[in-house]
Amino acid sequence: MTFFLEPLVFFLTSVVSVVLIYYKIPIATLQQIILGILIVLLLSFRWLLAERTKRLIKVFARLVLLSLSSLFVQILVISSGGFYSPLLILLHLYTLGASFLLNIPSSISFLVFSVAVLITNIVLDPKLQSIFRDDPGSAILYIVSFLVIIPLAQTLMKTYHLKDALAKILYESLNLRVLREKSILTSLNEIVVITDHNLKIISANDAFEDATGLSGGEFINQNFLDKISLVDRDNVPANSTSLSIKDVLVDQTNHIVSGFYLSTKGNPKSRQVVVEVKPIVGVSRTIIQLVFVIKEPRAAIEIEPHTDLEAAHTKQNMIITNIKRLLVNFKEPGLKTELELLQQGESDLLIAQELEDHPIKNANQYEDIVLLCKKAISYKQDLARSLGVNLQLIFPNAPGESSYLNLRETNSSLISQVVSDYAAQVNVKWFGILLSKLLDIAVLLSSGQKNPTVVVSINIILKSEIEVELVFPSPVMTPEKQKELFLQYYGDLAATTNLRLGSGLEGFIAKVVADQLNINLDVKTKEGPDRLVFRFKLYKKPAGKI
């Protein structure tokens, strides 16, 4: 309804301005009217738009404020010279503001009616007629400036509303994640305690309070080991050494310690538990907090993958894909890049959580490595393009591989009769994740470098192994710095390279997956200190016959 009311309001205010011009209201009186409108706006604005104001009154108040503000601008311009006023730019600014807060049709209607008022002012004012006859070019230029402001307002409006919509999506996503983590922490049966590096308790969940019978005020800033009844097999209370806390502080990785028994306030009889110690690393690469998770041994061993959440994850990816599609014709590369990095960060968090929950199960099968690499590259093309990086795939040793891939892509019935020369035994899901994370690192490091091209090369070695290489330009790194590529948050590299744009988990995920898949992942310089190569080998499938 307001879509029609807003242009009507601008029309009525323009009529009022024309009436004031027609009756030749003195400038002094116009100035008094301007002052009165300004006072009304200042006094009524906050009250009319207050939260407690009823919705219907708000709609009415919005229209009143719109009419007063547009009338204020028009009279101010008229009283100071009309087309030749030094305040003429206020009409441009009001049009831009209306395109932000209202819509394009409303802002254009204000501009058209205002131009009509200014033309009427020239027609009815002899002094302005004389100025126009002496200098018609200035008026024409002013009219052209009004024509230019329309596409500018439209462009700015699209940018503003799109960014506003994306900002709301990102805010809701972040808020949902915070609420989800808060909900999980509250409802967990496992005991979760967060301490500083001196084991002083910072916070704990409800399960800890139930187990100890303490409230927050009674255990905050107290030593964690003093507030929980945790003993080993010999009935010796747990300490920093038996919980491997020193090892956690040194290597900054998760440690799971078994062989402990817990007694709680509601159940004095001890039960066997497993203690998982997780470090939280700060920006300076020092441990600022420790997370202790105390759970049943079965929970640590028999956790299954979150297959029930895959549908929700797929739906989220579809939403982000739809947003990307809407951005195709929108020239805002920075926005597209941020969206790609948001999706990657969310995915990395889920993968890292799954890796921490349980080991990778042995689900190997023979699959074409070229096909897997091709899929991984295709999946990463949007991120690479947004950062100005080119991705290439080469497999020089098998002329028949292209034909094999064509058969696979067309789902030909002949594919069951063909054995690929590039087939190897791999866990398809996790091998794809390994490739994806290595590509993330390569793309991030390549971005900003000269000739940012990532080349994925696949070669058959001695007819028994398949070697995969990712070669790409990179800032110069020492061998020690190269090791930081596989640390959580990359150590000092995050401050000196474009790795800071990523989630910080890409290298960590790649290393964990490679280790659990028994893949020897190697990183070295190649053809100079400013080019890196990721290299690993796979066992080739024995040759077969059609």
Show the helix and strand layout:
Elements: H1 2-22, H2 27-48, H3 55-79, H4 89-101, H5 104-124, H6 126-134, H7 136-187, E1 191-195, E2 201-204, H8 206-212, H9 216-219, E3 229-232, H10 245-251, E4 255-263, E5 271-281, E6 287-295, H11 297-301, H12 310-326, H13 333-357, E7 365-368, H14 369-386, E8 390-394, H15 401-409, E9 423-426, H16 428-446, E10 453-461, E11 465-473, H17 479-483, H18 493-496, H19 506-516, E12 522-525, E13 531-539
Parallel strand pairs: 8-10
Antiparallel strand pairs: 1-2, 1-6, 3-4, 4-5, 5-6, 7-9, 10-11, 11-13, 12-13
Helix pairs in contact: 1-3, 1-5, 2-3, 4-5, 4-7, 5-6, 5-7, 6-7, 13-19, 14-16, 16-19
Task: Characterise this structure.
The chain is of the alpha+beta class. The protein has helices at 2-22, 27-48, 55-79, 89-101, 104-124, 126-134, 136-187, 206-212, 216-219, 245-251, 297-301, 310-326, 333-357, 369-386, 401-409, 428-446, 479-483, 493-496, 506-516, and strands spanning 191-195, 201-204, 229-232, 255-263, 271-281, 287-295, 365-368, 390-394, 423-426, 453-461, 465-473, 522-525, 531-539. Helix 1 (2-22) runs parallel beside helix 3. The chain starts with a helix and ends in a 7-residue tail after the last strand. Residues 183-187, 299-306 and 542-546 have low confidence and may be disordered.
What Rg do the Cα atoms give?
Answer: 34 Å
How far the N terminus sits from the C terminus, by CA atoms, comes to 70 Å
Structural class determined from secondary elements: alpha+beta
Helix content: 40-55%
Q: Tally the helices: what do you get?
A: 19
Main sheet: which strands, in order across? 2-1-6-5-4-3
Mean pLDDT: 79
Strand content: 15-25%
* Tally of DSSP β-strands: 13
CATH superfamily of the largest domain: Histidine kinase-like ATPase, C-terminal domain
Shape: flat
CATH architecture of the largest domain: 2-Layer Sandwich
- State the name of the first-level CATH class of the largest domain: Alpha Beta
> Which segments are poorly predicted (pLDDT under 50) over 5 or more consecutive residues?
183-187, 299-306, 542-546
Domain module count: 3
Biggest sheet character: 6 strands, antiparallel
| CATH fold-level topology of the largest domain | Heat Shock Protein 90
